[in-house]
Amino acid sequence: MNLKSERRGIHVDQSELLCKKGCGYYGNPAWQGFCSKCWREEYHKARQKQIQEDWELAERLQREEEEAYASSQSTQGAQSLTFSKFEEKKTNEKTRKVTTVKKFFTASSRAGAKKAALAGKLKEIQETKAPSPSIHRQASIETDRVSKEFIEFIRTYQKPGQDIYKQCKLFLDTMSHKRDLSIEEQSECAQDFYQNVADRLQTRWKVPPEKVEKAMDEVEKYIMTRQYKYVFCPETTDDEKKDLAVQKRIRALHWVTPQMLCVPVSEEIPEVSDMVVKAITDIIEMDSKRVPRDKLACITKCSKHIFNAIKITKNEPASADDFLPTLIYIVLKGNPPRLQSNIQYITRFCNPSRLMTGEDGYYFTNLCCAVAFIEKLDAQSLNLSQEDFDRFMTGQTSPKKQESDSFSPDVCLGVKQMCKSLDLLSQLNERQERIVSEAKKLEKDLIDWTDGITKEVEDIVEKYPLEIKPKSQALAAIDSENVENDKLPPPLQPQVYAG
């Protein structure tokens, strides 16, 4: 018996709403007339069938391509024909493959589209598969080694170790979704994580302070080994630009001698020379480490070699005033790679308890001061005139070389004579420059003296002008104006007396 119902003014036969498979349940038009149970069965069958067909298609494509390649290599004359047939067949298969992929996106097989696309690209993946570069392989090996060491370490902590491992995994998962954050924000996340883990060990698990410090070192080693390639010298910062600027600056200061920096180290002593070489090696090795604590350890070893070199040279313990100039000299002589990037990396991601206290923090602070001094180094810092400093920086001349008398006996006579000639030429050049400078100064003094005299004369003439008066009349006789001269007695006449 057919029952009819009225829905939105439309008469529908109720028998038409039943499942197509005849299970007795009502079907859903969105599921092509099947009920939910029958729809899942049909969908599962269609998906399995589609996946099987995709794998068969991928295997057939791979097999035909291999046969076509083998036939193309069998004879040189038929190479072009075989290749053209191979290309035609490959094009046809790709067309059929595209048609098949389009079918995957229908309502009945949309969920299997991803697997079908992966199956269609099986040959491409196999052809493009290549071994990773050695640097990535080494990084992967080191990461695996550190992970195993970390797991072995936290086993000794039992329940606190399980909690540490859980917190580290959660932190790494969180940081993987925060790659778009700035490096300062990522640094804040790492510092907050260090603080939270340390507080958790102390307050919740009551771990002794010495074990907390050791556990934090292992935590830092584990997470920073995994995060190194993402947070060391990232492209969003100007760390690389600063590295190049510092390297260029150090190269320009290659002429700086230990005497200019007042370095209390004598490299003529073999033992001291070995210490200097070891210090340079340690500061350069810092760039090869991935953990901030290991980079700090390289700085500490370098600093201890410096202290030993000073102690051997002076035959007394070194002071802080002796250490910093020597560290500056070691940095100038070694020119460590990516120096600013390493300093920034340590500052951002090192455990603050280690960076702010202890000898590691002290030596790291001195290294930062040494780099800042090098960046601002000027003539006054080296007790040089600005003229000499500019000539040294531009490469026009260099400081006086070692005297020939101080060479070892093994040095050949030609080298000694060459050094003498260079010293003589350098002295003559300095004398000539001094004479030219004094001559220019004398010429300037003469010009200034002439100008000064001329100006003084002009000022005097202007102040006291010269006036020429007309010629005066002749003076009258003394009695010419005397009107009563007639009353005067006659002039006396000389008289001659006879003796």
Topology (SSEs and partners):
Blueprint: E1 4-7, E2 10-13, H1 36-74, H2 79-104, H3 113-120, H4 122-128, H5 134-155, H6 159-176, H7 183-204, H8 209-231, H9 239-252, H10 270-285, H11 292-314, H12 320-334, H13 339-349, H14 352-355, H15 358-375, H16 386-394, H17 413-463
Helix pairs in contact: 1-2, 1-3, 5-6, 5-8, 6-7, 6-8, 7-8, 9-13, 10-11, 10-12, 11-12, 11-13, 11-15, 12-15
- Report the strand count: 2
**Rg over CA atoms:** 49 Å
Strand order, largest beta sheet: 1-2
How far apart the termini lie comes to: 212 Å
Instruction: Give the proportion of residues in helices.
Output: 55-70%
What's the helix count?
Answer: 17
Major beta sheet, specifics?
2 strands, antiparallel
Classify the beta-strand content into a percent band: under 5%
Q: Indicate the overall shape.
A: elongated
Order of helices and strands: EEHHHHHHHHHHHHHHHHH
Mean pLDDT figure:
79
